[in-house]
Amino acid sequence: MTALRSANYVLYSSPSMTSSSGWSITSDNSSLIGSDDIWHDHSYNSGTVTQKADCTTDGVRTYTCSQCGATKTEAISATGHTPSAAVTETGNDGKVYSVVYCSTCGDELGRTVIADELVNNSTVNKTTVTAGTNVTITSSVEGGTAPYYYAYYYKRSTNTAWKTLGTEFGTNSSVAFAPTAEAYFDIKVIVKDADGNTAEKLFSVQAVAELPLTNVSVVGRTSVNLGTAIPHDRKGSRRNFSIYLFLLLQEKHKYKLEALG
Ligand SMILES: [Zn+2]
Ligand SMILES: [Zn+2]
What we know:
- This protein has five domains: 1-41, no CATH class; 45-80, no CATH class; 87-116, no CATH class; 119-208, Immunoglobulin-like (Sandwich), CATH 2.60.40.10; 213-261, no CATH class.
- It has no helices and 24 strands.
- It has strands spanning 2-5, 10-13, 24-25, 32-33, 48-51, 59-64, 71-76, 87-90, 96-101, 108-115, 119-120, 123-124, 128-130, 135-138, 141-142, 149-156, 163-170, 174-177, 184-192, 198-208, 218-219, 232-233, 243-247, 256-260.
- Helix content is 0%, strand content 43%.
- It is mostly beta strands.
- Residues 14-20 and 240-261 have low confidence and may be disordered.
- The structure holds zinc ion (ZN) (2 copies).
- Residues 55, 81, 102, 104-105, 107 line the site of one zinc ion (ZN).
């Protein structure tokens, strides 16, 4: 038995073996006589991409033999992502992020928090006020980037033009507003951070001639021996209120105060 080797085949034959199909083996078994159509080393072309590689998935290149059409395949390595320049965006959680996307497939490749969203937590100390007395507006900010600047505005609710209170976008975190008429007023506070982001908050304040009467009287003690005086302070929310009814039940721990306007 003799073996003939090629890149693609190992042919075993006996000395007497001949072929009627176009090829034969020399009598010394040293070589094969025949047509390339039957016996050849494949001559592959340079191949074509039959499946494109993308950022994360290997592709396939297919080579075809120019003589017999046989094919073989080779993997094309995944390209990996191509990071684009970082962009700034606000996430659903309100935080500001620096985000890097792949310029090829759009996948998000990285995200870092730059700053929390600027939140305006400003307050007013009262929403009903006697005309001519102060409402104190106090700014309070969360997130964003310090330093912060504040702007305060007011207008009658029925008007459209805002008027500025104090310095616009100054550093005063508190300002007083005294409505001069009995009316509803709108107050607007805008906070601005070092990056120029702004956050707005609106309030409605009612200025009245007189505050509704509320009883803010106090007693100095709620337990006392019979016959002993109880220190007490009769107070109402109006500037003028004239009638007090002070009723102490002779029962320990119980008292009742009423102020009548
Ligand atoms: Zn071939
Ligand atoms: Zn990609």
